[in-house]
Amino acid sequence: MTGEVFAAIDVGSYEMAMKIFELDHKNGVKELDHVRHRMDLGTETYATGTISSSHVDEMIRILSEFRLKMKEYGATHYKAYGTSAIRETKDIVILQELIRQRTHLQIDVLSNSEQRFLDYKSIALKNEQFREVIKKPTAIIDIGGGSIQISLFEKDALIATQNLKTGVLRLYAIMQTVHATRRKYSELISELVNTQLAVFSKMYLKDRRVENLIIIDDYVSPILRRIKTEDGLVGYASNKEYSRFLENATDINARQVAKRLDIPEESIPLLYVSSILIKCIMDITNAENLWAPGVTLCDGIAYEYAEKKNFIKSPHDFEHDIISCAQNISKRYMGSKSRRETLQKIAVEIFDNTRKIHGLSRRERLLLQVATMLHDCGKYISMVNLGDCSYNIIMSTEIIGLSHKERTIVANVVRYNHEEFDHFGSKSPYLEGFSQDEYLIVAKLTAILRVANGLDRTHKQKFKDVKVTVKDKQLIINIDTRADITLEKGLFTNRAAFFEEVFGIKPVIKQKKMM
Amino acid sequence: MAKNKATIDFENPKLYINRELSWLQFNSRVLSEAEDKSNPLFERLKFLSISASNLDEFFMVRVASLKDMINAGYKKPDIAGMTAGEQLEKVLDAVHKFVDKQYEIYNGQLVPLLLEQGLEVSGGEDLTDRDLEYVDRYFDEYVYPVLTPMAVDSSRPFPLIRNKSLNIAALLKKKEDSDEIDFATVQVPDVLPRILEIPARDEGEGLRKVILLEKIILRNMHKLFLNYDVLTCSAYRVGRNADLSIDEDEAEDLLKEIEKQIKRRQWGQAIRLEVEKGIDEKLLKKIASELEVEDNEIYSIEGPIDLTFLMKMYKLEGFDDLKEHSYYPPQSVPEFEGGENIFDVISKGDILMHHPYQTFENVVKFVETAAVDPDVLAIKQTLYRVSGNSPIIAALAKAADNGKQVTVLVELKARFDEENNIVWARMLEKAGCHVIYGLVGLKTHCKITLVVRREEDGIKRYVHLGTGNYNDSTAKQYTDVGLFTCAPAFGEDATAVFNMLSGYSEPLGWNKLAIAPLWLKDRIIDLIKREEEHARMGERARIVAKMNAICHKDVIAELYRASSAGVKIDLIVRGICCLRAGVEGVSENITVRSIVGNFLEHSRIFYFENGGSPELYASSADWMPRNLERRVEILFPVEDASLREKLWHILDVELKDTEKAHIMNDKGEYEKISGKLSKDAERVNSQMVFGDEAVEAVLKRDPGSSRVFIPEMNPKA
């Protein structure tokens, strides 16, 4: 066998799931097995922040069974992720260690934006349909237990994404708190959801159209996927068809619905909540079509792994999505398009030509790009406290695809672009929780960003064509411009000093003389 | 017919046959084989014995169940609208007639025929002094030491008489005391053989004699009670409400009812008393009152009580020519004869086996090969009833030892087999298998094996699905079909089945299989409905279904509906059938036949015409409430064209069977077809046909039998 057998484990808030995949170069990603075990962790941790010992025992038992199942297929690699329930646990490190000891499985914790990004990547497994769907303006609705994520697509690229705390479990809990009867669900849920959706709509949907919705959820999707449309497509429904389905699924008599749809009766309430939620989103976006690709987080985990190991080549540029998201955040805070483009260009030029010196990877290059996009977003609030304001904006804005740590790195790079650098061990609150390696990344990226930013001091984009070379302990920045750069040159020394401190190379500006 | 269609109530109890009475009809069919002169004499003994042991189980489980209902005051009528009391009355009535018939056959036909063949079943009276001396010596040396006579008087209460044990009761009078009469009872020991052959005087003597153990004890009774005179003594046997949990066939509300009234349930209550005809009145009265049996529960037996001893008689040496030899032993399966790896063979295409005409060995070999194959990663199997010393168990243990992931579901609740199964389960667990001890509230009755193997082009799954248990010894007696496949759709479903059995949530969907208790019943009803729709559209519509029993009301009502819409339905049901055939406006398009022959018909095969693109299925499930609602069962399609042909052929030949088939008439009674045929009509014994075909298949595929030399060619030419 040329490929590899891989296990993807999702410790979710309502269910533990594992999928076993076969990965190889010829066939890509092939699912072999899918097991699910229902366990309601969410209700507990959302309320108390801890996981009871009986649940821990159950979790360990199931994970041990997962391990056996991995052996059944000779799985050599795995990736196990905990999502919101684990994320909201206070004693997370202790829990991880306990699980590691008992089951020899390492559970990593996904931030919301990472999790959503994986969900989103999982859709790309259904590449052909995905590409077809996102040709038109599309929104991805990722419905989880605690929250939902709405991501907007335009012209093939992700442009905005927003998390709303209206997950199915949360809504259902509210329904139970107010003792709503099934009959009232539709009305109450719409009321709850629409207030939040209205804000979202005002922020993002003003001048946009959404034609297609891509639905990721655990309740409606499996059923939609059983219904074939007239063209033999699986998982598609038009607005009208969905309304018909909704009528079918929201009968008062849960037993009849369960029988009609062939699902366990216990899933009926959540199916109900989920389907009403989708209906609300459909109404507010005026979407015409709906597609349920039927993917799960496990698919995304496998996709990411397979991509990393080069079993598959991604036809869709996910990095581009991250950048385009950052662009849109910048846009929201009145960033100038030409400025961010110039700055990005210069920063990337420096990064690419100093590869041997900084030794950073492609991922850090991406972080640098995001940092250039957002480098002065704080001016939206205050021109004076630019560093801190930018930092705060970035820390409270979700950037899909970035982990929490990565976002902190970006925020710090942006902040130190404006503020004085805090050295490791200085006990700066901004660097709290950073390892030495992570600190170094911040330092290196900051050094590059400062130089790049220094070249564009006057914000007039005088440095359109910049060539960077390293020669004799100097970073030579060749500039082809007719503009007067006296100011840049004069103020440059200050910014260049940090670069020299970090890399031991002095940046020097050389202007090509015009004939 | 069309005009009154709307008014027909297909659920009218009148359209249904009570299941107990239907079962008794089945046992009568078994008994009819004992009467059938075309069967060799010793086979007829065997059938009589089977009918007797069937009846014992029937009492322990079903009659006991009716008693429970009466005791619990359960009033709900059965499928045929009868209360438990009404059922019991009719059942006992029928059983009395049945028992009379058994002994009519035994005394009137079999005993004289045995004598003709030189075997005498002696009552003791006609033996020579020399024979008697031998018998009495046997008593003194072997029987006497293991007897425990028990007297009953004011200080010693009536002892517990064990279920199904044969006993001798006696009235005694003290020798010196003149008028006090005592009662005593002694169990006929089950550690000694029931029949004793008396050695012939000299080699040349033609007649062989056997005597029954109780007769030996009866004539020596006085030796047990030396200070007494034995006034009278006689053999008797008690059948009890077995100390088992409620039969799973019963409705859930009954179970709840009985649970509530658990104290009122009389465990081990005597429900049947068999006594020898001519037993002393006083003695009978004493036994009957002690055991608290009613008059209609007493069976007066003319001949030896408990005919199951005939199975021992069947095994007497030297009567080989009086036994069945016209059926071939299990044949090899040609596909597997090339000596190739079993997985390679399955990879070439699905394989359907028909047991016992074809050997079960390959299924054993499948597990055995998997156990040692270095590429096999995991084996999963359900075990319901396994044979003693099962090679499958050994292979599974070995697999675990070899580091394979082995998951075995051992069904502990298999009727009367619990203890046996626990032993195997423990053994497997010790060997390192992951053992699942059944599911709460459900019996796992499906027969499925999954082997996961790592191959050149990835993980591959091999599946065996069957209609019969993974039991290599019953596989020689039961007719079953089994399918080997490595089609991915089946592999995925098999994985999902085991995931469910391991306690994971149900899969999001199924490719091919339908699983009870969640989906199977609806699937069957849908399949029947589809035929009904085709019939209404004027298309050809037909159902042929073979199974062991059918008594699910919803399914039967659906068949009635289909029949009245014009669907042609042929049922081949060995045992219980609560459906009435040939009722005008309801089931005139339905035929019911039952095949009771040399092998026990056990396969479940279903054919649906489906408007010209027929579908064929096999299953582990009968169409009974317990199978469809309280068990884990599998229905699987057979899709390969030639295998469908094979499956259809099985149904087709059985529909043509004239020799062992009984047909239900419009009164709900069964008639044997062979009796009604003209002399020169074609006669078909389906079991014989299948045996012949299995032999032919081997010959056709076996090039080794060719006597033509094959010259080697010049490789360069």
Description of the molecule:
The complex is a heterodimer of chains A (515) and B (717). Chain A has 21 helices and 14 strands. Chain A has helices spanning 42-48, 53-72, 84-87, 92-103, 112-123, 127-133, 168-177, 182-205, 220-224, 239-249, 254-261, 268-285, 297-308, 318-332, 337-353, 355-358, 362-373, 386-395, 404-418, 436-455, 486-503; strands at residues 4-11, 15-24, 28-38, 77-82, 107-109, 138-143, 148-154, 157-164, 212-216, 236-238, 289-291, 466-471, 474-479, 506-511. In chain A, the strands form 3 sheets. In chain A, strands 8-7-6-9-11-10 form a 6-stranded mixed β-sheet, with helices on both faces. In chain A, a hairpin with a 4-residue loop joins strand 6 (138-143) and strand 7 (148-154). In chain A, helix 17 crosses helix 19 (404-418). The mean pLDDT of chain A is 85. With 717 residues, chain B is of the alpha/beta class. Chain B has 18 helices and 27 strands. In chain B, a hairpin with a 5-residue loop joins strand 26 and strand 27 (670-672). In chain B, helix 1 runs parallel beside helix 3. The longest helix of chain B is centred in the N-terminal third of the chain and has 33 residues, at 84-116. Chains A and B meet through strand 2, strand 3 and helix 2 of A and strand 15 of B.
Largest interface: A-B, 28 and 22 residues
Biggest sheet: strand arrangement of chain A: 8-7-6-9-11-10
Number of strands of chain A: 14
Q: Judging from the principal axes of the Cα atoms, what is the shape of chain A?
A: globular
Basic shape of chain B: globular
Our Rg estimate of chain A from Cα atoms comes to 25 Å
Main β-sheet description of chain B: 10 strands, mixed
Structural class of chain B: alpha/beta
Radius of gyration of chain B: 28 Å
Strand-pairing-aware structural class of chain A: alpha/beta
In round numbers, the mean pLDDT of chain B is 88
Distance between the termini of chain A: 65 Å
Q: Low-confidence parts of chain A, pLDDT < 50 over ≥5 residues?
A: none
Strand content of chain B: 15-25%
Regions with little confidence, pLDDT below 50 for 5+ residues of chain B: 261-266
First and last CA, distance of chain B? 76 Å
Quaternary structure: heterodimer
Name the helicity range of chain B. Answer: 25-40%
